[in-house]
Each structure stands twice: as structure tokens, then as C-alpha cells.
Automatic annotation (TrEMBL):
GO terms for molecular function: 2 iron, 2 sulfur cluster binding; metal ion binding; oxidoreductase activity, acting on the aldehyde or oxo group of donors. PANTHER family: OXIDOREDUCTASE WITH IRON-SULFUR SUBUNIT, OXIDOREDUCTASE, IRON-SULPHUR BINDING SUBUNIT-RELATED-RELATED. The keyword Flavoprotein does not apply. This is Xanthine dehydrogenase YagT iron-sulfur-binding subunit. The keyword Cytoplasm does not apply. Residues 5-81 form the 2Fe-2S ferredoxin-type domain. Keywords: 2Fe-2S, Iron, Iron-sulfur, Metal-binding, Oxidoreductase.
Amino acid sequence: MAKNIPLHLNVNNRDFDVTLDPRVTLLDVLREHLALTGTKKGCDQGQCGACTVHLDGERVLSCLTLAAQAHNRRVTTIEGVAKSDGTLHPVQASFLKHDAFQCGYCTPGQIMSAIACIKEGHTGSDGEIREYMSGNICRCGAYPHIVDAVKEAAENIKRESV
Ligand code: FES
Ligand code: FES
């Protein structure tokens, strides 16, 4: 059995010190140890995108990321994207406005990917949004509304930053 190791994680601007088996994934730490269950476990093998979070601002699949890889780094989950006063992130607001979900299971991952997709500058066309969001599967097939939501959020974020 692997020896537990001490890890320091910064999640949504909060510091956590945990001691864990080095084989534990970031997804399981978030959900099982830190009670941050907004990040979803779909396939648990890198196929669906439901577990997408940001590591130092870049999107990663937390089911394929070891918690040890997040040691002393900055993790952002769906619980950390709204402002502290409760104001939704523009991508969250846009998903609501465009009804970009049905069951909602894929939605946290979609939103985390969409925030990164906009930051990466991959929203030039519907096709580009579809391509750069293609790692996030929606079993309900809400794709047309998701594309509309990402497109409008990108425009709003661009407008706000001018
Ligand atoms: S749960 Fe990580 S990609 Fe599906
Ligand atoms: S809204 Fe149900 S899986 Fe996407």
C-alpha cells in the first residue's frame, strides 16, 4: 500500500492541508475530502468532461489529474466562479439565459470549459466553439443552446473588458 503524503491545495482561494494516498485523483479529493460536489464524476476515465476544473487557470480533467499534481497550485471549481456577493459569472448567467442544460449533470464541466474556451480565444465561430468544447459531452443533447450561451458570454466578457 502506498504511503500517504501531505498536500497543500488552494481551492477557490481557500487553503486546504490534506494527507492522502498519492494515487487519489483531484476529482476524488474535491468531492470526497473537501465536499465540493459541484464537480461531477461521469466516466472517471477522461471521456466526458463532467469533471473539468481549472488548475492555475487552465482547464484540466480532474479525473485524470492526481491530487498530488495540484500540490501548491491554484484550483478553481464551479463553486468558485461566481463573485463573493453571489453575482454569477457571465458564463453562468448566459447558460441560464439560453437554457443551455436539461438534467444539468454535464453543466459544471461545460461552464468550466466554456470559461477557459473564451479565455483561450476559441469562440470565433459556432464551429470553433463546438470544436473547443467537444471534450464535454452532453447526454441530453443541449449543444445548440450551449453554443449560443458560450457565444453570448464571450461577447459580453469582451465588451466588459474594453
Ligand atoms: S469524469 Fe472525468 S472526463 Fe468523465
Ligand atoms: S444537460 Fe444533461 S447531460 Fe448535459
